[in-house]
Amino acid sequence: MSAAVRARAGPAFGLRTTSAALSLLTAAATSGAVYVISVSRIAPNPVLQSVLAALVCLTFVGSGLAALRLRPYANFGLLLAAVGLASLVSVLHEANGAAAYTIGVLGSNVVFAVLVHALLAYPSGRLGVIGRRVLVAAYVDVIVVQALAVIFDPLTRYHTDHPRNLVLIDSQSALATGLYELEAGIAMALSLIVVVVLTRGSRVATPAARRQYRPVVIGGVVALLLFSLGLVLAPLSSKAGLLGFGLALLAALALPAAFLATLVQGRLSRGAVGELLLELRDPAQTGDLEEALRRALGDPMLRLGRPAPDGGYVDGSGAPLELPVRSKWEVATEIRHQDEPVGMLVHDRSLRLRPELLDAVNAAAGFALANERALLNVGLAEQQTRALLDAVPDTIIRYARDGTYLDARPDADTAHLFRQHEFTGENIRDVVPDELARTFLAGIDRALESGSIQVIEYELNIHDEAHWREARIVPSGADEVVSIVRDFTEKRRADAELRRLAEEQAALRRVATFVAGDAQPEQVFQIVTEEVCRLLGLRTGVLHRFENEGTSTIVGKFGGLTAQFELGNVVAIEEGTALQVLRTGAPARSDYHKLTGEGAAALRALGFRGSVGVPIIVAGVTWGALVVALRQDEVLPSETKHRLQAFAELVALAVASAQAREELEASRLRIVEASDTERRRLERNLHDGAQQRLVAASVGLRLARAKLRTSPDEAEAVLEALSEELAEALTELRELAQGLHPAVLTERGLGPALEVLAARAPVDVELGLDLPERLPEPVETAAYYTVSEALANIVKHAGACSAAVRVECEEGQIVVEIVDDGLGGADAERGSGLRGLRDRLDALDGELLVESPPGRGTVVRAELPVRAPNVAAVEPAV
Amino acid sequence: MNAEQSQLGEQARNGRRVLVVDDHASFRSCARKLLESEGYDVVGEAADGSSAVALAAELEPEYVLLDIQLPDIDGFAVAERMLAGDPRLQILLVSSRDRSCYGTLVEQSGAIGFVTKGDLSGVDLERLIG
């Protein structure tokens, strides 16, 4: 029951007590009335009167008791009962005793006022302002005016032998009749007022209220009018009056009859609730729930609100539902289901008078709305699930236990398969390869038996391409599973690529480590060839070192080839990959089926179909080629050229490193040789020069001593010669010492030393020096001997008239440049002096450049870093 | 050694013929003066090995004062060739280096002796040639 209905108050005392008391009172009163009539001396038709009196009384009281059980009608029920009991008062009009008779005469019309009361108070039992006034007037009329008439009425017009009127003051029939007519007129007027009030109330009321009002109002109004008519006729004729009263009482029966009809209609409405429930049971026929509720409650103005997401309620169109505030006609009743508000009914206030109906319809509406909400939630959940499924890029398939496709949502890769087949209803055995079908069926069985996810990985050929897929099989019912299939080919490829890269890096690292070690280039060539072939998964590879005149030496080899491709063999480079690499200095590829040479034919015969090669470029020159050969059954791996290139670069590094090592060793050897040569030169110079002169002096001294006494003149001549000889020896020794290392260089630095050198040169030397005070000793020495050697060459070979020497320190390096105007044509590689200089400069990370175009002089330019790392003093080699 | 020197000195006094071979003119000049002052007859001078061999064959000296270090062929080879032409030839090897520099080459050369240039004097020659 709704809160609004539950809030209605019931009668102040117990229903059972009231009903019992009323029943007893009615039984007593009716019995009394029947007794009074039956013993009456004046009753014209005791039987009929008894029946009529009992019928009227019991009908009203019975209706009243029925209304009492329906709480909204409780007050009205009491009034109905009051009408019934009041109708018995007039029975005393037939009493034999004067007192009873007089009471009967006085109260015979009270029933009219009670009837007016009941009609005005219908259906709630409460009265309005007009109702109260009319009622007061009615009671005054039927009690006061009646009493006034009775005290002047001798009561002779009905019976001649009627009991005595105990309240008769003065028998004035005319006055009495006038008063009776006044009473009748007032009653008639009040009846008309009641008719107007009821009619107006009926007209302005809502349809539901009208439907309740109408029978009662019609019955009541007819009864009132007849009763009034009886009152009017009574003074004129006793028979007519009696007839009027009789008809009025009979008409009054229309009131309880109409009321009972209304109650029955309520019962029938509850039947409509049953229909409503049936209607709601089949949602397809429900259509508009609001309309169904209107039909069930008989309220065409009813509005149904559903909970809005932000609180409050909305109507069927989604607009906010306006709830009635202090409305006379409409009230709102909350619809609850399982103690939760699920909706709101705005309906006719009068429906509150039929709480059972309202409760039943409310409950039905609660079910319907809860159901509707559940359906909505299910719909939302389904929508979310569908969105979720759509967002999953995988194939989703439902299978029956036996492998029959129940439903499928393919991914992009397999959509075409699903278009080709009408899968639903087909069996997996008829669609995928047998082995895969068996695997799937086993997985489905395991999933259904264990209730847990089963994972299957498999390979499927799609568009002639192997795809790796993973199916996760989950039980989705007693005999069905859902399989979510994901394609992880890309991931697998990426993993394979990562593995390949890791292997490649490892191979490169091994080779690089090898190259960085003291390995001989020949070992590097062989290892590179092997590693490359293993990495690429190929069985054959060759490393060529290009020689002169179209030949190459096989310096690395992996796998079997024709006999000529043996390690160390010098082979003629035929048309093919190696030749293309040699010509272009770029990666190349050959197809042996398109080549005509004998070599290609031999390789074809061995089962090779082509080759790929990359150049090995050392110091800008194509040194060789790394070539891998492809057999008929071998597939060229991706990025082969790029991957070969990485190894080719390592080979180039190894070769360059070996060449550098050789060059270094040669340079060292030259330094040693230069040093030896210089020692020999020194020894020779000492031996041939100063030593010979000293020997001659020694011999001369002995000769002079021998001649001193015998021939003093000769002795003197010998000593003279000896003096010259010693002076010569001294000069030679001084020059020799100067040649070993110029003292001024050590003591004063590069600038003064070069000035001495320039001054002593037999040609004009222009010096341009821009130097700091001192430089590192090895740098000064190297620069000094560069100038010294260049000037010596100018004097010896160039035939120059003049030379310019420029020495500058710029950007952390010293630049020494000697330019002459001589013959030119000098070759830095041939002269031992310049070669020695180059070695000296190399040792200091320096560089020597010689430009000597014939006839246009020579430029010797040396550049060397001022802070050469790990500089070791190098003995002069020139 | 002393026997060799005394033999040379004895023959010199009798006007023995000597050929001086050395690539240094100053030494040749000193040696000629020294030998001549001691009574030897310096019949010729040669500045290299080849001309020395030719002069020895031509002049037929009795003694040869032969420098080991010569521009073309060394003194040992010269001695070998001279002795091949005239086995009686008395060859005295000289050098500005010490005898130890040449090891057993001096003994194997067929020369009658070795003397360092600094030690060369009339007395020594006499003692050597004897």
Question: Any overview of this molecule?
Answer:
The complex is a heterodimer of chains A (878) and B (130). With 878 residues, chain A is an alpha+beta fold. Chain A folds into 5 domains: 263 residues, Rhopdopsin 7-helix transmembrane proteins (Up-down Bundle), CATH 1.20.1070; 106 residues, no CATH class; 96 residues, Beta-Lactamase (2-Layer Sandwich); 246 residues, GAF domain (Beta-Lactamase), CATH 3.30.450; 135 residues, 2-Layer Sandwich (Heat Shock Protein 90), CATH 3.30.565. In chain A, 57% of the residues lie in helices and 16% in strands. Chain A contains 26 helices and 20 strands. In chain A, the strands form 4 sheets. Chain A has a 6-stranded antiparallel sheet with strand order 12-11-10-15-14-13. In chain A, α13 packs antiparallel against α14. Chain A starts with a helix and ends in a 13-residue tail after the last strand. The N terminus and C terminus of chain A are likely disordered. Chain B has 130 residues and is of the alpha/beta class. In chain B, α3 packs parallel to α4. Chain B is globular and about 30 Å long. In chain B, α5 links the parallel β4 and β5. Chain B has a single domain, classed as Rossmann fold. At the A-B interface, α21 of A face α2 of B.
What are the SSEs and their pairings?
The complex is a heterodimer of chains A (878) and B (130).
Chain A: H1 3-6, H2 15-39, H3 46-69, H4 74-89, H5 98-107, H6 110-121, H7 129-151, H8 173-204, H9 207-233, H10 238-252, H11 254-281, H12 283-286, H13 289-297, E1 303-307, E2 313-314, E3 330-337, E4 340-348, H14 355-391, E5 395-400, E6 405-409, H15 415-420, H16 434-450, E7 454-462, E8 465-475, E9 480-487, H17 489-516, H18 521-536, E10 540-546, E11 551-558, E12 570-572, H19 577-584, E13 588-591, H20 598-605, E14 608-618, E15 621-631, H21 640-710, H22 712-740, H23 743-748, H24 750-760, E16 764-770, H25 777-798, E17 802-810, E18 813-820, H26 832-843, E19 847-851, E20 858-865
Chain B: H1 2-12, E1 17-21, H2 25-37, E2 41-46, H3 49-59, E3 63-67, H4 75-85, E4 90-95, H5 105-108, E5 113-116, H6 122-129
Parallel strand pairs in B: 1-2, 1-3, 3-4, 4-5
